[in-house]
Specification:
With about 290 residues, the chain is α+β, with helices and mostly antiparallel strands. The chain has one domain: DD-peptidase/beta-lactamase superfamily (Beta-lactamase, 3-Layer(aba) Sandwich). Helix content is about 35%, strand content about 20%. The protein has nine helices and nine strands. It has a five-stranded antiparallel beta sheet with strand order 2-1-9-8-7, with helices on both faces. InterPro entries: Beta-lactam/transpept-like, Peptidase_S11, Peptidase_S11_N. GO terms for molecular function: serine-type D-Ala-D-Ala carboxypeptidase activity.
């Protein structure tokens, strides 16, 4: 992604703004124009592109419409876990964790009951293959209990000003009692915040992660489902899919100190979300901040 050098002079003040993107009601986020005729075509139901370095909204397509977000939920899971857990803390995988992903039809990190993995390693299993088993293990441990953890997720959403978001689990799978929901705008706010956590940024930008067998666990090999990685400047963040949510993507890119984050929700073609994200990052990099 090419970002023009002329932006460098504005970076110091812009980076200070993003540090404060934690107040309610989307503080620091400015409204995009009603129309952006020069923007790339977006075929998904909703989209949002935010300059996280300045707080300026660059594109807003139904960004405040509530809808399911599938596994984009796991970004909040990672963020909430690291509010209290250390990356070196150890979690024992239970049979319940493994069965949850299999019985719910979710994607899995293929975790084996009895294995003991650090929080840091489980984050790779959570974010790369989008393991519902990893989400369950982390929520069960750091709620304490899954219900307690989901309550923490919703409390954190409120604290971040994500007032159109409601989580019902730690993974984004459909539930008999009703699905959770969020908006493209709320998820962009979360993405900007989460990517300031060094471990989340590192994990989300990793294409493959290998874990050798030890006395504590068997070996694992996880591949990132985010096909945007490898594009110059791309740094993550999370894919998602359910029938109700369609294909979703939280994405981000940076160059020369400027970070753009974006959300695509309910795209009907899996591969198109990645090409659209790449086009939006390229387009957004050429736009001057207000």
């Amino acid at each position: 992604m090419r970002i023009r050098k002329a932006f460098l002079a504005a970076m110091a003040g812009a980076l200070a703004l993003v540090t404060g993107l934690t107040a309610p009601a989307h503080a620091g986020v400015t409204t995009a124009p009603a129309t952006t005729p020069d923007a790339p075509a977006v075929y998904g139901r909703a989209a949002y592109l935010l300059d996280a370095s300045s707080g300026e909204t660059l594109l807003d397509k139904d960004g405040t419409e509530r809808m399911p977000i599938a596994s984009l939920t796991k970004t909040m899971t990672a963020y909430v876990v690291l509010q209290t857990a250390k990356p070196t803390d150890v979690v024992r995988i239970s049979a319940e964790d493994a069965a949850y992903a299999e019985d719910g039809g979710g994607t899995t990190a293929d975790l084996r009951p009895g294995d003991r993995l650090t929080v840091g390693e489980l984050l790779y299993g959570l974010m790369l293959p989008s393991g519902a088993d990893a989400a369950h293990a982390l929520a069960r441990t750091y709620g304490p209990g899954v219900r307690g953890f989901v309550a923490r997720m919703n409390a954190t959403a409120r604290a971040l000003g994500m007032n159109d978001t409601h989580y019902v689990n730690a993974d984004g799978l459909p539930t008999p009692g009703g699905d959770g929901y969020s908006t493209a705008r709320d998820q962009a706010v979360l993405a900007a915040k989460a990517l300031r956590v060094p471990l989340i940024k590192e994990v989300a930008g990793t294409q493959r992660h290998y874990l050798d067998a030890t006395r504590e666990h068997r070996s694992y090999s996880w591949r990132n489902t985010n096909r945007l990685l490898g594009t110059p400047g791309a740094i993550g963040l999370k894919t998602g899919f359910t029938r109700a949510a369609g294909y979703c993507l939280a994405f981000a890119g940076e160059s020369d100190g400027r970070m753009l984050v974006g959300i695509l929700l309910d795209e009907s073609v899996s591969s198109r979300r990645f090409s659209t994200a790449e086009a939006l990052l390229s387009w957004g990099s050429t736009r001057q901040s207000a």
